[in-house]
Amino acid sequence: MRSISKSNRRWWRPLVSIGSGVLCSLFFFAAMHLGGQTAFEFSRMVSDAVMLREGGPRLGARELSGDVVLVSFGTSSAERLGKKPDLETDRKLYENLMNADAKVVADLRNLVCTDPDDFEASVRPTLDLIQQVAPKRNLVRDVYLTLDVDYKVVESYHDCIVHHGMSFKSPTMVNRHSRIFPIAMHDYFALRETTPFWVVQRLTDQPNGGQTGFYERLDQAGLIHHWLEFFPQMINLLQSPSGEETIAPNPKLADYQVGHNEVNWIGFGSEFPTVSPAGIWVDYGFNPSDLTRLEYGDLAEGDFDPELVRGKAVLIDLEMSFVPSSDRYDIPIRDRQADALDVTGVAIETLLNGITMQMAAWYVTPALLIGFSVLACVIAASFRARWALLCVALLLLAYFAICTFAFRGGWFLDMAFTPVSILVAGVLGVGIRYFEEIRWRQRITDLFGRYVPRAVVNQLVQQSELQSIVVGGVTREVTVMFADIRGFTQFSERLQPEEVLEELNGLLEVMVRCTFEEEGTVDKFIGDAILVLFNAPLDQTDHAERASRVAWRIQEALRSHKSGLSIGIGIHTGQAVVGNVGTPQRMEYTAIGNTVNVASRLCDRALAGEIVVSGEVSQQLSNSFVLEANEPMQVKGIAESLATSRLVGFENAANE
Hints:
By secondary structure, the chain is an alpha/beta fold. It contains 20 helices and 23 strands.
C-alpha cells in the first residue's frame, strides 16, 4: 500500500509533544532552582538511596584499596588488658605496629592539654614515645594544645601531631559533618593537614615539604585565598612559613595535590576560623563496614598477623560505644551511626581513589532534564500506551545508567526532579496521543458512519493506518460496484415529488442493507444510482466475491419489489486511489481512477436485472458463482477490448 499524501503529513503531534516536554522540564527546573538548598538536599538524599544505601541497589559502590586498617579499643580489648589504654599499652601497640612494618600510623584519640603542667604530665611522655618508636616520623597523634604551652616546646614535636579535624564538626550544616572532610587546620602553633591527607601523602611516598611545602600546595589550589575570604581574622596565621616577604595569596582556584592525585575540593560554611572552610566530599561508595578492623588489645599483646598491617595505613581510636554521642556521626550508607575511624578510613579511600565528588557543570542538569523530558513526551505520544510506558521505563533506566556512570566518575547528577519530570512528560505524551486518537476516531466515525456498518467503523478506529485514510489517500486494489435503477425517470414522472423520494429511498435502502451485510462501503448516491467499494477502507481478501454476493442479493430482493423496478449492476476490480476528496468544509471518502470508470461502463451495458462483471472479477470468483461469458466489449478511454461475463447464478444463495 503506497501513501500519496506526504505533503499533507501532520506535524502537530511532535510539535505539541516537544512543547509539552519543554514546559514540563521547565516546571521541574524552576522547582529545583527555587527550592534552593532544600531541593539539593532532596536530590542528594535520593542519590544516596540509589547509589550508596545498604539494602539498596548501591549503584555507586566502589572496591576498597585494602590499604587502610582500623584498630579500635572496645569491650573486648578492655577485658583482655584489664584496664584502659595507657602509656604502657600504647608503647606495646606502637612498637608492634612498627615492627610489623605498618607504613603509616595515625592515632585519632585526642589528647587535650589545657596548661603546661598537664602537658608535662600526660602529653609530653606520649609525644616522646612517638619520637622514640617512630624515628621515620610515620606515627602521629591528635593532640590539642592551648596557647599556655610554650611554643618552642611544641615546635620540637611538630612532626608528631596531626588533627583529624572531625571533632570540631566545622561545617555549619549538620548533615555535612560526615560528608565533607576539611583539608587543613591551624592550631595556633602550626598549619597542619588533617589526618586523611597526611596519611595519603606518606602512604604514596610523596615528599611532604614541611610547613613551607604544605602552605605552597594550599596556595596553589587557591585555598589560602578562599580561607581568608571566609575568615579575614586568620590573616596573621595564614602566612608562608618560609619567612619570605608576604605576598597576596593566589586567588585562582585549582585542584589540590595529595599523593599521586589532584583532587577537587569544595567550599563549605564553617563555624571555626581555625578549620579550613574547604574539604573533599567523602565518597561512601566505599563501605566502612568492609574496612579491616582489628582489636587494640590483640595488637598490644602481639596477637595478630603482621601481614594485615604491613605496608598499610593504620588508624587507631576508641570503639563507638566508648565515645560520647558528640563524636558519633550520621552517614548516608546506613541507619546506625559511625565513629571517626569509619569516616576517616573512607576519606582516605576516597583520596587514594583520586575521584572526589563534585557538582556537574551548570548546563548539564538542565540539558539532561529538558532533553530526556522532551524525548519521553515525544516517544510516549508516538506509541500505544503499553509500548509508550515501556519506552519511558527504558528512558528512565538510561538516565539512571548515565547518573551511575557520572557518579562513578565523580559527578553528581539530579536523581529526584529529572526522573519525575521524565515520568510526567511520558504521561503527558500518552495523554496527547489519547486526545489525538479520540479526535481521529470522532472524525473517522463522522466520515465513515454514513458509508459503512457500525461494526466496520469500530474496526476502522482500531487501525494504525487510519491517519493515511483521513489525511490523504492510498493506492490499493479495490472492487467497485455500480448499480443503477432502470426506467426510474419515466417511473417518477407519474408520481408526486414526495412519492418519488419515498420510492427512491426504499430502493436505496434495500441496496444499502445488502451492501452492509457484506461490509461494503457506500461511496455515494448518484441520483438513482449507487457506488459501492470493497477492500476499502478495510482490507478484505475476498472483496470480489463480496461485491458479487451483494449484487446477487440486491437483484433477488428487487425482483419482488412493489415498484416493479429493476436495476443493472456492473462490477470491476483494479487499482484505484481511495481517500478523502474535498475541502475542510466538505469532504467525501471516495475512489478515483480508471477502475471506477470501467465499473460505470459495465453498469451502463448491463440490462435490467443483469449483473455484468469484468474478467478481473471473474478470475477471483469461486465455483459458487455461475457466469456466462459475453462478447468482448469496447470501453471509452481503453484501447483494448474488455472480457466480461454475466453473473447468472449463485449456488449458496438458497442456503442464505
